[in-house]
Specification:
mainly beta; single chain; 1 helix
Length: 123
């Protein structure tokens, strides 16, 4: 397994969750990383991305100001801190490693995908 996402669960609206993604060193060191999500019946949506050094981040418009992506290069981990969650945030969240050192909003630019972790938000 090269990407392993965890941390999903059930949370009340307004609550917080932190997702984690463990990556193998081979694909973590020089790759941009991102989180995407997909709700039933909807297309996969870009949530947040971070470049290989962690110096640059970008967010989807629907999560800007509420979610924070970070990476720990020493631990080969990527995190997504989510706050002020609402039912529209409910989805399966996937971590992904880019083909390049940089992040992209296009899921086709990502070569490796984790198995996904479910986030459910109750109103």
């Amino acid at each position: 397994v090269q990407l392993q996402a965890s941390g999903g669960g059930l949370v009340q609206a307004g609550g917080s969750l932190r997702l984690s993604c463990a990556a193998s060193r081979r694909i973590f060191g020089n790759n941009g990383m991102a989180w995407f999500r997909q709700a039933p019946g909807k297309e996969r949506e870009f949530v947040a991305g971070i470049n290989y050094r962690g110096a640059s981040t970008t967010y989807g418009d629907s999560v800007k100001g509420r979610f924070t992506i970070a990476r720990d290069r020493a631990k080969d981990m990527v995190y997504l801190q989510m706050s002020s969650l609402n039912p529209a945030d409910a989805a399966i969240y996937y971590c992904a490693a880019s083909r390049t050192p940089y992040m992209s909003r296009d899921y086709s630019d990502y070569l490796y995908w984790g198995q996904g972790t479910q986030v459910t938000v109750s109103s």
